[in-house]
Each structure stands twice: as C-alpha cells, then as structure tokens.
Amino acid sequence: MNDAVTDSQRDYRDTVFLPQTSFPMRGDLPKKEPQILAKWDAVDLWSKLRAAAAERPLFILHDGPPYANGHLHIGTALNKILKDVINRTRQMAGYNANYIPGWDCHGLPIEWKIEEEYRARKQDKDAVPILDFRAECRAYANHWMDVQRQEFRRLGVEGAWGERYATMDYPSEAAIAAEICKFLLNGSLYRGLRPVMWSPVEKTALAEAEIEYHDHTSTTIWVRFPVVKASVPALEGAAVVIWTTTPWTMPGNRAVAAGAEFDYAVVQVDGVAEGSLARAGEKIVVAEALLPTVLADTGITAHTVLATLKGAELADTILAHPLRGQGYEQDTPLLLGDFVTTEAGTGFVHIAPGHGEDDFILGRAHGLDIPETVGDDGTFNAWVPLFAGAHVYKAADPVCAALQGAGNLLARGKIVHSYPCSWRSKAPLIFRATPQWFIPMDGPHDIRGKALAAIAITKFVPDQGRNRIGSMVASRPDWCISRQRAWGVPITVFVEKRTGQPLRDPAVVQRIVAAFEKEGADTWYSSPPSRFLGPDYNPDEYEQVMDIVDVWFESGSTHAFVLEKRGLPWPADLYLEGSDQHRGWFHSSLLEAVGTRGRAPFKAVLTHGFVNDEKGRKMSKSLGNTVAPEEVAAKFGVDILRLWVMSSDTTEDLRIGPEILKQQAELYRRLRNTLRWVLGSLHGFSEAECVPEADMPELERWVLHRLTELDARIRASVESYDWTGVYPELHNFCAVDLSAFYFDIRKDAIYCDRPDSLRRRAARTVLDHLHRCLCTWLAPVLCFTAEEAWTARFGADSSVHLELFPVLPAHWRDEALAARWETIRGIRRRITIPIEEARKANLIGSSLQAAVELPLDEAHQTLLDEAAWAEIAIVSSVKLGLDTGEPLAKVTPAPGEKCVRCWRVLPEVGTNTTHPTLCLRCADAVESGLVCKPA
C-alpha cells in the first residue's frame, strides 16, 4: 500500500515561520506590574543601576518635596512620573541619575489636621504640651510618608527610597536651623513691624504660595472725612470722600491719600434721592473722573461743581477721623501717594498703615502711628474704641452703624470680587501689621538683584517661566519667614531685651545646630536657653524666639542637606515642579540659595501644567470628576498612566478622564502589538543571521535611517528636557511606519522565505535593532511593559533598565534614501486606494488577489522594478506603464492560482510537479529542507 501523501493533500502550515513568543497580546498590567515591582525589589535593581553607572557623569534632578499629608492625587502622579521618565532617560543616555526622593513634613496643613482631631474630641489644643503636640504631628507625617512611598513605587518610580530625605529628620532640622543662622550672622535677618497676609482662622502669617483667590462678597462704604484745616479756601467746610471694601479697617485709619496729578472736584450737593445718606447743601470732594459714578452710587441727583483742584494742592490739608468724638480724636493728614488710581472708588484712599503694604510704606514715610488694632484671632483688641472684641468678619454692620451715627457714612453697598483666602481653611485673609522676622530683598546683600541675575542664566522649560518668576522676584516685598505656629523648625534666635537686637554669635549657632543634629528641633523647646547661650550670656537678658520658620524656607533649604551634605553636585542639574512653584519652591529655593551662596541652586527649571477633567474643568470631589492614580492602576495599569503623561504636552494644562484613558489604552495596545510582532518574528534569531547594512535591501536601510532620526530626537530631548511630542512620534512610527507599512510588507519574507535568504535575514537583522531600540526607548515611559518585552527575549535575569540607549552608526542616516522612499510611499498610496475600492466592490478579496497596472511618469519609472512594486504594494503582480494623466493604478484579479503557502496568486503555481499547489519560491523553500519543523 502506498503511504505517500500527494501535494494536494499536504498541509504546509508547519513550513511557515509564524511568530512565536511568550509575550502575550493582553498586557494584564494591573496583575503583572506588581509582580515586576517585586522582582526589582528582590534583586535590588536600584543598587544595580548605581553600580552600573558609577563611572558615568552624575545627573541630579533634585526632588521638590511633596507634602506628607494624604493619598496621592493625579497632579502628584503626573509630577513624579515626569521626574522618573527624565531620570530614566538620562540614565539610559549614559549618565548616573542618582535620584533622592523626599518629603515636606512640617507646617500648617499637618498641624491643622491634628487640631481638627482635637476639635473633634472637644479638646483645647493650646492646653496640650507643645512637645506632645509636635510628637503627634511627627507621627502623622511619618504615617503618610510610608503610604505615599508605596504609592510612588506602584507608579514605577525608581529612586533611593532607602535613603529618602524628610524635612523633619534631625539632620534636616539642624541644616535648616543652620541656614536660618547664616542670614542671622551675615546681618540680613531682622525683626520688624510690617503688614502681612494673616489668617484669623489659622492665627498665622501666610506666604504668597499659601494664598488662593475666590469670589467674595464685601461690604463697600463711602465715608466722609470732614476738613478741619484746609490747604486752600475752596476746601473749607467740605468733606473728602473715600471708598473702601474693608469697613473693618476704619478703626486703623491714620491718613487719606490723593494722587498728585489728578483733578479733584469740590461739589455742592443740590438734590438727593429718597433714602440717600447725602445731605442737600453739603460740600464733598471726589476725583473729577469718578464724579458721575460717585453721584449715582450715593444717590445725589443734583449738584454744582464749586472748584476743581489738582491733587498736589490738597497736600497739608488736615481731616477729622469720621468717628471723631467717639475715641478717634487724632488728626488725619491728607497725603500724596503714587499708588492712588481713578479706576474705581472716589480717587481718595483711606490709609490704615497696619492693614496694607502701600498704606504701611506711606505711613512710615510720614511718621504715622501704626496701631495694632486686630489680634491674632481676627478680633479687635481691647483698647479699640467702639469695636473691642468684635471679629473683622462681622465688623461691617457695627462700623457702618457707628459711621452713620457720627453723620459720616455717605453710602453703603456690596461688591463681589476676587479676594485672597487661605488655601487650607478657605477663610478670607486680612492684611495685618505684626512683629515678624524678615529677610530683606534689597540693601547691602541685594538678594533681589542677585536672584534676577541668576534667573537670567538659568535654563527654563518652557522659557516663559523665566518671565513669570522674574516678575515675581522683581516686585516682591521683603521675605517674611516667621510663623506663629508649633510644628516646624523654630527661628533659632535670641534677642537682647535691652537693645531689641538679635544675638549674632557663631558659637551660639554652633551649639544650636549640634543639639538639633543629635536630638532634633524639639530640643529648642525642651532645653533651657543656657544650653545654647553658653557661659558668656545671661539667659535672663535674652528673649528666646518661639516663632517657627516658614515651611517655604524649609523646602527652599533642601539643596543644603540633600545635595551638599550628601556630597552630590551643587547646583542641581534640574528642578522640576508644577507651574505654581514659580511663586513657591522654585522661588524660595532661589532666594535662600542666593542669600547664602550668591547663586541659584539649579541649572535648569522645568514646569508642568495642572490636570483638569476631560472638559477642562478643575477637579473637585463635589463635581465627582477626580481621577485617583490608584484607581487607574487597578483598572488599566500604571503604564497607561505613564503613557498619558508622556503623550501629553506637559508644559500646558492636561486633561484626563475615562475616555482619555481608553484612548491611551488603545495607543498602548498598538505599541504592545508592535513589540509582540517583533518578538515573535525574531524567534530563533542568532547573531549568525546578521546582515551588514551595506548588503541590505533599500527598505531595511530606510528603517535604519528612521531609527537614526528617532534616536536624534530622543537624545536632543534628553539634553533639553523638552519631551513634548516625542512619544506620540514614537507611537506614530510604530503604528504607521512599522505596523502599517514595513511589517505589512515584510511578513511575506519573514513567514515564507528560506531562512538563509538575504531578504529574510536582513529583515530579521532590522527587527533585532528594532527590538533593542524600541525596548530601551520605551523603557523610561512603559517601564513595566518594556521590561517584560526585554526579558521575553533575553531571560528573567536581564533588565532593560540596566541597558543604555543603543549607539546607532552615523552612516545609517541617509537623507537621500529617505527622500526616495517618501516618494515611493506616496506612489504606493495610488495603489492602495483603488485596491480598497476593488475590495469593497467584491472584485477581489485580499490585496494578494490583485494584479495592478501602475502608470508612472518618466522620472519615476526607475524607482523600483515591477517585482519590487508588487512586494511594496502587497499584490501579486505589478505592470508599469507611462502616466497618461490618470494617477491611480488599475486593479484587476490576478491571473493564475493561489499558492497555498504564501497566498500569492501567480501563473507559476502548478508548474512544480512535486509541489503543484506552491509557487516556485515556496517550493524551493520547502525543498531546501530548512523550513520544516520537527514532528
């Protein structure tokens, strides 16, 4: 009996090199990523990275400390992922990217949380011993550092987590105290009475970075200040009218200001509307430009302008306080101020030197009294006539009643305007003059000038950050560094009671810093002053300052104990935070370093935008539009979140939500499929297969050229820190250049050519380069997926993160070849379009069933031969003709039979009697004995 199998019965599937790989199509990231993280921790990948890079130049991205207070939000995830990508790209570009993560642990948000716990238990926080209270704050911060560290690790962030820094570590507290004392010893720390933004709720001064603005409804008042001594006769018997949105500041009034160049009208009131507080026959003075508005707002229906005076003529006029006779007996001088405007109000500004920056400066210049009318809690002090004990938030009604009773309230209204509020309690703030500790911006040390010079030589990404921080530094007042709270590093200063001068003794400073190093800042509260003052000073003669330092000073000092103390390069190569940090961490770090070292602590500053929802709205729990990082990790995987970051323009505000995450998951799927096909098609690849670039077909050399273009793009971004568009471009390369073009064309050769064919070997050589490039280029972003794709080929003991970006030969770059293939691809579209139309018309099934007549002009006749065009177009045959004006190719069903192995339709199928269902190429491959797999 003949057991031979005829060709018509034979299944040639086992002779086709279909892709084989252990790298699955489904990522299953939520399950797989924690396993990869566990592996990295088990092998101590971070130590391996440091050892591998030990001899390379250091790159230091200094971590701006997140606040140890609550779970990570999406903005924090964006920040940390971007930092991690930049560190990883620098590491793989040949640097030693040693990243020390850290936390900001002191300050009001933590203190406020602990106070809330006391309030919930109806306990008085002020009755708790300060060391007990500080211990609770420390425990709270420790808890959230541990939580956030695990959350950051889940995001794939690599760093020296075992060597992390925290501002509440004893060495950190000692270093912060030492930085404070540098300003003390060089004479640029002073205590002064100045108005600062004050929170009556939190009972402390706030920094600019702790303030946000919300719409707020304020009571507005128009108030008469009767003239008691006129500078010119026209003012006799008149009243100057001011307008203010802060009635509570009236008890602190000490002057009125006018603009020297403005015209002011002396107006006689001839008629008033019903209910108006204006009086017929009275004389009032307002800016001429604002007269129509004032008349309408105060209900004056008829008037006569008696005189017009320049503001300069009003100088030396003396007014009565509008509450004279009720405890406010002081004269009120009329002064000239260059800050007065005629944009709103009356053209006069009432001056309360204790409640405004301009007011304070003008008051100081004229020797005015600067009364402290308001206490820490926002209530009027006991000595304030009429209003003692009243809270400023509720002062509008009693102030208006008193003014009306005195006959000097001209009108009352309301205004909704943007108003400064605490970013924690959301309560409105007040300007309040209190004794505080300041670092001067100007003067002998010229911190402002040095800071502006440092900004000029710093690289900003994007560059507009330079103007933003520059304008803030140029206009900012002296730096108020004191806070009236308990949880933080104290301002380690002793003040001589007799002179009011701070003690500037290096030996005292040294004792303080040494004590803090060993026992932490708590020792300031637990030790007697004599421990620090030593034998040369009598503690009874000195006041020990108990204010704590502004947390922005603390975080602004991190360069001292994270970089300098650890022997890392100073200044850092890069600071990276959100754009709000131009007034926050970038700002305080700049001022601190300039004030102590004369230059910025960074060479470059990168800022990113904020994260909004899909509609561009700010995220809030009340809108239900928040996106939690841990939820994204659980549903999609962290690599999807990381891809979202690097697919976005991070210099602008970003958007995220369910639909955007689905889009990113689709982008990820395409990237993963690219890696999977490369891996599968490299099955069994060995170095012996490699083909030199010079021997490769043009198509392979074109792919190598594209790799050099992407390599240049990536390396430029490594140096510039500008990653906008890089990873979308890499995705486009995978989806368009590879999957939809190169892979589509080369599937036939890889699946069906003999293993020893030049074309197949060249293609697999290119795939080898592609795998190495794609895995390393994607590793900084898709850190888990790239690792999986690397180990699928090189084994579980390998790691893509220990690799460098491949160094690509310069001769791979071929601009002329790229231009030639741009033309070929353009012509190819003239084939693919009619093929799709023929498929829709059921003329053909797959493109391999098509025969194509391609018209080309003479210039393009020699681009490729007919066989090459058939290969590029993935059709069975192409016949070239001269272009007669019809650019699209003509598609007809290909003549011949279908090869059961490669599926091309060719007349030659059936001519090989041994393999009558194969084309000649496939028959040769089968007969070579190189393609059949063992049974």
TrEMBL record:
Segments carrying motif 'KMSKS' region: 618-622
Locus of motif 'HIGH' region: 66-76
Span of domain Aminoacyl-tRNA synthetase class Ia: 35-656
Matches recorded under SUPFAM superfamilies: Anticodon-binding domain of a subclass of class I aminoacyl-tRNA synthetases, Nucleotidylyl transferase, ValRS/IleRS/LeuRS editing domain
The Methionyl/Valyl/Leucyl/Isoleucyl-tRNA synthetase anticodon-binding domain, residue ranges: 700-853
Any GO CC annotation of this UniProt entry: cytosol
Subunit comment: Monomer.
Places the protein is found: Cytoplasm
Cofactor binding description: Binds 1 zinc ion per subunit.
Binding-site list for ATP: K621
Ranges of residues in domain Zinc finger FPG/IleRS-type: 896-924
Organism of this sequence: Rhodopila globiformis
UniProt function note: Catalyzes the attachment of isoleucine to tRNA(Ile). As IleRS can inadvertently accommodate and process structurally similar amino acids such as valine, to avoid such errors it has two additional distinct tRNA(Ile)-dependent editing activities. One activity is designated as 'pretransfer' editing and involves the hydrolysis of activated Val-AMP. The other activity is designated 'posttransfer' editing and involves deacylation of mischarged Val-tRNA(Ile).
PANTHER family, per database record: ISOLEUCINE--TRNA LIGASE, MITOCHONDRIAL, SOLEUCYL-TRNA SYNTHETASE
Name of the protein described by the UniProt record: Isoleucine--tRNA ligase
Any Gene Ontology biological process: isoleucyl-tRNA aminoacylation
Main location: cytoplasm
